[in-house]
């Protein structure tokens, strides 16, 4: 995969997502949030860094899931054509 494809993914990847792309994006996000959480908690105590490294990706994933479900519901109610799957993937 080229760097250009990482920076500018194809426009139709929300319409036809491959499980590999979704898994790769989720893995990169979880890894990034875990590293960020570890560095935020590490200044206090290394064990706190581990706890925050576990908690941060879970907190962000739960927030994104709730927001995606709400946007999917509003998309259906308002007739925008944006469904639950597209909203959660976005």
Structural notes for this entry:
- It is a single chain.
- With 90 residues, this protein is mainly alpha-helical.
- It has one domain (11-89).
- It contains four helices and no strands.
- It has helices at 3-7, 19-42, 46-78, 84-89.
- Helix 2 packs across helix 3 (46-78).
- The protein starts with a helix and ends with a helix.
What's the arrangement of secondary structure elements?
Layout (H helix, E strand, L loop, with lengths): L2 H5 L11 H24 L3 H33 L5 H6 L1
Relevant terms:
90 residues, mainly alpha, 0% strand, flat
Task: Describe the structure in brief.
It is built from four helices and no strands. With 90 residues, the chain is mainly α.
Order of helices and strands: HHHH
The separation of the N and C termini measures 21 Å
Poorly predicted runs of 5 or more residues: none
Helix content: over 70%
β-sheet strand percentage: under 5%
Rg calculated over all Cα atoms: 16 Å
- Overall structural class, as computed from helix and strand content, comes to mainly alpha
Bulk shape: flat
Kindly report the average pLDDT value: 85
């Amino acid at each position: 995969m080229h760097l250009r494809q990482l920076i500018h993914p194809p426009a139709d990847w929300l319409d036809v997502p491959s499980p590999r792309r979704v898994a790769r994006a989720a893995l990169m996000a979880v890894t990034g949030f875990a590293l960020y959480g570890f560095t935020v908690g590490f200044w206090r105590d290394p064990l706190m860094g581990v706890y925050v490294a576990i908690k941060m990706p879970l907190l962000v994933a739960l927030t994104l899931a709730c927001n995606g479900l709400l946007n999917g519901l509003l998309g259906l109610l308002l007739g925008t054509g944006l469904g639950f799957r597209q909203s959660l993937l976005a």
